[in-house]
Structure of DNA-damage-inducible protein D:
Amino acid sequence: MPLLGYDSWRRFTDAIERAKAAAFLADADLSRLFADAGKKPGGGRPACDLRLERHACYLIALNGDPRKTEIAAAQTYFAVRTREAEVSEHEHSELPAWAQQQIETIKRVGQIEVEVERQRDRLDVTEARLDSIEGQHDWFAALAYAKYVGLNTSLEFVKRLGREATRVCRENGVTPSQSQHQLYGQVGCYPRWALDEASAAMARVK
C-alpha cells in the first residue's frame, strides 16, 4: 500500500527524517511523536514501523513532496484545520465580556499545563540525548551494544564490531548515525538488528 503517494518505504523515510529534524529543532520528544512500533517477524530483522502522533503526521505532510496527490491532500487538510482554529478564535472575541473572561481563565490554566508538559518533554529529550550513546532507542554505539549484550569490550573488538556493523548497514541501505561521547568524541551508532548481524558474523569466523 503506497505511503502518502510514495512507492517505497525507503523514499518515504526521507520525509520522516526531515520531519524528525524539524521536531528535534523544536525540542520535541521524538520518541513520543515518532514511537517505534517495529516487530521482529519470526525473530529476524525488525520490520520498520512507527506509531505517529498527530503533530508528527502534520510535520511529515509538511515535509513531504507536494507534487504527490496524497501529500497535497494532507497539507490541505492541516491548512483547513488551522484555519478553522483561527475562525474559532475570532468567534470567541465576539462573546460577552464575562464569557471571554472565563475563556481566558481556561486558557491560562491550559498554558500552565502546556508549559509543564513542555518542560517535561525538554527533560525527556535531554535525557534521551544523554542516553543515546547507551542505545535506549534501539540504536547503539558498538561499545554500548557490547556492554548491553555482554560481549568483549576491548578496543580491538569494539572497532571490529563497528566496522562489521557499518558493512551490514551499507548492504541494507542504512546510514549509521553519529553521537557525541564525552570521552571518545564522535562515535558511530547502529540499529540493534545491524549489530546483531555483525556480532553473529564475527562469531562465525572465529
The first helix runs from residue 9 to 25. Residues 128-136 have pLDDT under 50 and may be disordered. The beta strands are 34-36, 50-52, 139-141, 177-181, 185-191.
